[in-house]
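sry for the spam today, last one i promise. C-alpha cells for design, 548 residues
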C-alpha cells in the first residue's frame, strides 16, 4: 500500500509531465480557458523541477524556467490598481488577450490562499524576480479585502473567505483579521455539524472546502485555531467517507459537472487520502491535491475503505437553502443504500439548484469495477439542457427509494421534451422489449422501462432513450453473493428470472413492483392526483432521517 506522500508524488510527476509537454502559447500562458490552470500546472512543474526525489524525465532546468515564466505572466495580469473595482483580481479566461479579458471574482478565492502556500513552501528555490513578484501579488490580495464578507449562507465561497482571513491575517500580522477568521471558522463548524451541508454532494464545491481549510491548517501556527481547523477537516472527511465507494461519490448531488457524472473523474483528493483505485490518466481538476495533505481519522478511513458485507442505509436530513423545493418543508431527505459492490439512492425532493444541476438519483459502482462510466441513471431533460449533456434534469419526476430498488415516474407536460434519457455503464447486457438486464462489476442490475427504448453502445457507456409523455423506470440491483444465494448462475439466468417480475403499470402513472426481497413498492406519480409512495402499504417515515 502506497503512502499519502507517494501518491502525491505520483500526481505531481504526472501533472508535471503534462505541463512540460504543453506548448507555451504566444501570450506566455499554457491555457486560455481558465487562468487557474496556469497556476496549478506551473506549480506542479516547478515542484518536480526542484525535487530530485520526484520522477521527472525532462530537463529540470528547462522545466523550472518554463514554470517561472508562466508564473511571471500570471502575476503580471492581476489588477493591481487600488482604485479599481476589481482590485486584486484576475480574469477567469484569457480571451481575447490576457490584458483585455475582464476580471472575475472567482480565481483569487482559492488561488490566492494557495499562492501563499506555494510561495512559503518554495521560497528558497524561487528566483529573486519571482519571489519579489509573489510578495507584491500577495500584498495586493491582502489589501484588496475581497475576503472581508460576513457569513450568510455558510457555503463554499464563505469557506474560502474564512480560510483566506486566517492565512492573510497571519501573513501580515493582522490580529483583527485572524480573529475574524477564527470566529467565522467556529460559526461555520457549529452550523454544519448542527444542520448539515446545504451543498450536499457538490463536488466542485466540496473539494474547495477541503482545499481551503487544509491550506489554512498547514500554514496556521496558532494551536487553538489549528485544532479547530482539524475539527473542520475531520467533519469534511467524515462526510466524504459516508458517501464513498471506491472513488465514487454515491447518492444525490446539489451540483454536477461533466467530470462528476456519469463518471467520477474529480478524484485526486480521494486518491491521495484512500488510494484504493488506479490513478486515472485524465485529471480534469488538478488543483492542489498533490500538495495539500491532511490524514483523515482512522475510523473515517475505515468507513470509506471497508464497507461491511451487510448492506447499510444512509438516511440524511439536509437543510434547504438553495432554490425552492417542490414540496415545501425545511429540509430535504437523502437516501443511499450501500453494499460492497454498488450504492444506490437519491433525493426525495426535487429542488432547482445552482444552474439547475441537481442530480436526483443514481446507482454508483467502484471505479475499478467498470470500464468507462461508473454511474447509472435516467432523467427527463430540462428545456435548457445542451444537446448531448447528461445533466440539467426537469421537475417532472417522482421517486421512491427502498434498499436495492429505485422507482421513478415521469409525467411530462405538452410543452416539454417527450422523452427520457439514461446512462448505463458498459457490461454484459441482455435486452428485452420491457427492459435491460446486465452485469456491471460485481453486481447484477435489472432496468425496467415502461415505454419502448433504444440503447446505443458508445465507447465508454450505454446511452438509452425512451419516448412518451408518461414513462417510468424501475431499477433493482443485487450483488454477486446475494445472486449466488438466490441460485442465479449468470446474467442470462438473471434476465430470465427478472423478466417474470415486471412492474405493473396502472392508471394515474402508478407503478407497483415486488422486489427480490418480496417487498411490495407502490409509486403513484400523477401530479394531478395525490402522490402516493408506499412500502408494503406503509408511507415513508422521514422521522428516521438524521443530520449525521
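last one done:
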Amino acid at each position: 500500500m502506497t503512502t499519502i506522500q507517494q501518491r502525491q508524488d505520483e500526481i505531481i510527476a504526472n501533472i508535471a509531465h503534462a505541463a512540460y509537454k504543453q506548448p507555451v502559447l504566444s501570450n506566455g500562458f499554457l491555457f486560455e480557458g481558465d487562468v487557474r490552470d496556469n497556476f496549478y500546472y506551473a506549480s506542479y512543474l516547478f515542484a518536480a523541477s526542484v525535487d530530485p526525489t520526484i520522477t521527472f524525465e525532462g530537463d529540470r532546468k528547462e522545466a523550472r524556467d518554463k514554470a517561472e515564466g508562466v508564473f511571471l505572466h500570471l502575476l503580471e495580469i492581476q489588477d493591481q490598481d487600488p482604485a479599481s473595482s476589481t482590485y486584486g483580481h484576475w480574469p477567469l479566461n484569457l480571451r481575447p488577450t490576457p490584458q483585455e479579458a475582464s476580471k472575475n471574482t472567482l480565481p483569487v478565492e482559492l488561488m490566492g490562499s494557495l499562492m501563499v502556500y506555494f510561495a512559503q513552501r518554495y521560497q528558497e528555490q524561487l528566483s529573486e524576480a519571482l519571489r519579489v513578484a509573489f510578495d507584491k501579488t500577495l500584498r495586493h490580495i491582502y489589501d484588496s479585502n475581497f475576503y472581508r464578507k460576513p457569513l450568510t449562507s455558510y457555503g463554499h465561497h464563505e469557506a474560502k473567505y474564512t480560510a483566506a482571513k486566517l492565512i492573510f491575517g497571519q501573513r501580515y500580522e493582522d490580529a483583527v483579521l485572524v480573529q475574524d477568521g477564527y470566529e467565522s471558522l467556529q460559526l461555520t463548524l457549529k452550523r454544519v455539524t448542527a444542520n448539515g451541508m446545504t451543498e450536499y454532494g457538490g463536488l466542485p464545491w466540496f473539494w474547495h472546502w477541503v482545499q481551503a481549510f487544509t491550506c489554512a491548517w498547514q500554514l496556521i501556527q496558532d494551536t487553538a485555531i489549528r485544532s479547530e481547523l482539524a475539527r473542520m477537516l475531520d467533519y469534511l472527511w467524515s462526510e466524504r467517507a459516508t458517501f464513498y465507494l471506491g472513488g465514487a461519490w454515491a447518492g444525490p448531488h446539489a451540483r454536477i459537472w461533466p467530470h462528476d457524472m456519469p463518471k467520477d473523474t474529480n478524484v485526486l483528493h480521494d486518491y491521495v487520502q484512500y488510494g484504493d483505485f488506479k490513478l486515472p490518466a485524465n485529471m480534469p481538476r488538478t488543483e492542489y491535491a498533490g500538495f495539500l495533505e491532511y490524514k483523515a481519522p482512522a475510523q473515517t478511513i475505515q468507513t470509506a475503505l471497508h464497507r461491511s458485507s451487510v448492506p447499510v442505509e444512509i438516511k440524511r436530513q439536509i437543510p434547504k437553502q438553495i432554490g425552492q423545493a417542490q414540496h415545501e418543508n425545511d429540509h430535504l431527505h437523502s437516501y443511499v443504500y450501500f453494499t460492497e459492490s454498488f450504492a444506490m439512492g437519491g433525493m426525495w425532493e426535487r429542488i432547482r439548484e445552482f444552474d439547475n444541476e441537481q442530480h436526483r438519483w443514481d446507482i454508483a459502482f467502484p471505479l475499478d469495477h467498470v470500464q468507462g462510466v461508473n454511474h447509472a441513471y435516467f432523467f427527463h431533460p430540462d428545456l435548457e439542457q445542451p444537446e448531448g449533456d447528461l445533466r440539467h434534469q426537469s421537475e417532472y419526476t417522482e421517486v421512491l427509494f427502498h434498499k436495492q430498488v429505485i422507482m421513478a415516474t415521469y409525467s411530462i407536460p405538452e410543452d416539454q421534451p417527450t422523452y427520457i434519457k439514461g446512462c448505463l455503464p458498459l457490461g454484459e447486457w441482455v435486452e428485452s422489449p420491457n427492459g435491460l438486464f446486465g452485469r456491471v462489476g460485481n453486481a447484477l442490475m435489472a432496468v425496467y422501462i415502461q415505454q419502448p427504448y433504444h440503447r446505443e453502445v458508445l465507447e465508454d457507456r450505454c446511452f438509452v432513450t425512451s419516448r412518451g409523455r408518461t414513462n417510468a423506470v424501475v431499477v433493482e440491483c443485487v450483488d454477486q453473493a446475494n445472486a449466488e444465494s438466490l441460485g442465479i448462475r449468470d446474467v442470462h439466468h438473471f434476465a430470465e428470472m427478472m423478466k417474470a417480475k415486471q412492474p405493473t403499470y396502472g392508471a394515474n402513472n402508478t407503478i407497483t413492483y415486488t422486489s427480490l426481497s418480496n417487498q411490495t413498492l407502490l409509486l403513484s406519480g400523477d401530479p394531478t392526483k395525490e402522490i402516493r409512495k408506499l412500502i408494503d402499504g406503509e408511507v415513508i417515515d422521514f422521522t428516521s432521517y438524521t443530520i449525521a
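The chain has a mean pLDDT of 95. ok im logging off now
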